[in-house]
Design a protein that fits this description.
Aspartate Aminotransferase, domain 1, 413 residues, homodimer, 8-stranded mixed beta sheet, Aspartate Aminotransferase, domain 2, alpha/beta, 2 domains
Chain lengths: 413, 413
Amino acid sequence: MIEYERFLSQSALKSQGSAIRKMGVMAIRPDMISFAPGYPDPVTFAWAEFREIANELLAGGQGSVLQYGPTRGHKPFIEALVELLASRGITATADQVLITTGSQQGLDLAGRVLLDPGDVVLVELPAYTGAISAFRNTEARLAGVRQAPDGIDLDDLRAVVARERAAGHRVRFLYLVPNFQNPTGLLLSREKRRLLLEWAERDDLLIVEDDPYGALYFEDTATGEDTRPIKADDTEGRVIYLSSFSKTLAPGFRVAWITAPEPLIAKLEVLKQTEDLLTPSLDQHIVYEAYRRGILTERLPMLRKFYQDKRTTMQRTLREELGDLVAWPEPKGGFFLWVSLPVRFATDEMLPRAIEERVIYVAGSAFFVDGSGRNTMRLSFSLPSHDRIVEGVRRLAKVVKAEIAGHPAPVEI
Amino acid sequence: MIEYERFLSQSALKSQGSAIRKMGVMAIRPDMISFAPGYPDPVTFAWAEFREIANELLAGGQGSVLQYGPTRGHKPFIEALVELLASRGITATADQVLITTGSQQGLDLAGRVLLDPGDVVLVELPAYTGAISAFRNTEARLAGVRQAPDGIDLDDLRAVVARERAAGHRVRFLYLVPNFQNPTGLLLSREKRRLLLEWAERDDLLIVEDDPYGALYFEDTATGEDTRPIKADDTEGRVIYLSSFSKTLAPGFRVAWITAPEPLIAKLEVLKQTEDLLTPSLDQHIVYEAYRRGILTERLPMLRKFYQDKRTTMQRTLREELGDLVAWPEPKGGFFLWVSLPVRFATDEMLPRAIEERVIYVAGSAFFVDGSGRNTMRLSFSLPSHDRIVEGVRRLAKVVKAEIAGHPAPVEI
């Protein structure tokens, strides 16, 4: 066979697979309890309703259900999204919406449309790995900004921008997940949302706001108002807002959307044409019908409670098993619990021992663009059952305690 | 509103929408007969079978139907594709297959993995616009190679490579559609397929072989053997083969695949992770089931006959209406008929008058990377009914005759 390296582009030569996706594959092994991938629980999916909708759509009366269609998306669906956005406080027209094949595509499109090699993207420390990979593919520089318990650290943000500009780099935008961030679960405070808009205006930058989890706030600690998107108060058109049905309806549809000023949507659309022409028609139609029939809205209170309960189980078991040996910020929504060990430990080195105990997580370092965070790990509580959360945390606790006790091999406790 | 140009990447600044996609939107106007987009006819879709399959899949017993899944694709589906490839003479392992969200994604991925700015891609004159856009987004140089009635001109191919290399450019691969090319409908001869492999080896280049139409040969003029992919005889691993279910099952599923040597598939997969994580699960499952149950294989003879008959109707009407005023190569498969007017005419300038007559086509110049071909047009016969093909060709003939007679305004004939 011939040697292919010489045929690869610079970005392909540098590219590496996602740590999370690798963990996703590993989770398939029998009797492994996985806290790794941020998958929703399929028992929450509206199977019966989707089946009924598919049954109607595939009756054959409407060719567009299985045909090519506009790159922007199915028109009535876009109109429905304008309405959904309004319910989140965002005023948008149909011209400001583009349907994407998952928010992952939105991130990839935003990176390709906004970044040239060497440009700087500001990301949180830690940040979602899928965004990191998408931006890195453009050969952009990723600059990390620290987070506080109420979200991104604005002083550090200003300092990083000043530093990058002083070094002669062109800073393009800030990427962040304000609601129940992936991976930390943190909720950005309302005050900071306001201040970020002021900052973007003053520093003449854009904000890419990624909001897959906003609807999944936990009513014991947060309200809908707490999740109000930054985009809702964006009078200048500085925010590119991404959201998705993957965590609420089902990820297998790969249906998400971007809302942005029309000139940007036009450029994102042209690029989407070359990426996949359109988001699959049947999926768009099913999700549209599910929204239109009120299936999403009806189910949200159940979903909030469902994931809140899992969060509570994980949190309680962690406290019971590990007490003060580890720390985490309480998740007020979303899918993730972010655990920090004492700084002298490295969760990536601990992973093989966790796998021996048949439990996995994502080592935190994957989320840090500056190489820090080796003492952290992301635990996703969304998919496993309560029993498996309890059992998985017990297995993990055994590994962590052995680690902390200075015993590299797992011991019975 | 702020000015967004200064926020755009170089490639976004240069990007333009596809001429075909614009025509697709225009076709929505009432009483317009469109020969523009290469859409399959929805009456050919296996509606009842898809409905039954969806009904079974959405019963809820199998979470993976609506869940995230591996980026490579649903495993049993990949195994089935290995079998399907074997039926086309291609020996591949499961490691050499990647499911893509339409072949458009495959083209985009191939471009990004193989091309750096300034690299040369060889494309046919004319070539599929979606490939042209995908490759242009990488800031590659597109070099056109002439076609003969039996496909790409090998002398010109060698001359173009020599010229580009003499100019100091790095030539990367040849992109071509050997079976019923988009837009010309041409079928590459068997002899040339063999010679192309020799050429790729001698000149140390790769071939990107795009084969969406191969299964749709017309039995009155071609056989299955005539469509044998170049990849089938690729012993060195120089061919990246793309194929799709969009023209045979339905395009709305956006399910296609790439077959290539494993090192390239691995790189394509990593990039696909950042583009959309995975091709939608439900669509993969439906297409897999349709294939597994023999629905595709059963329907192919019907589909061949169906599109052959439309081709015959369009060809016959063109002859009746326009005689020798225009010329075209007889399509032996696929969706397209490629019409040339005398060279002094420009089909893009003629388009407004065609629209007045309520008929549209794609002006040929969109498919030529060298700015030539202004006297050509692509007529797609796949979607309109026989009656509408006849009526549309009559309308078009009126425009063409007026043009040829030197009367810029349409006249009654």
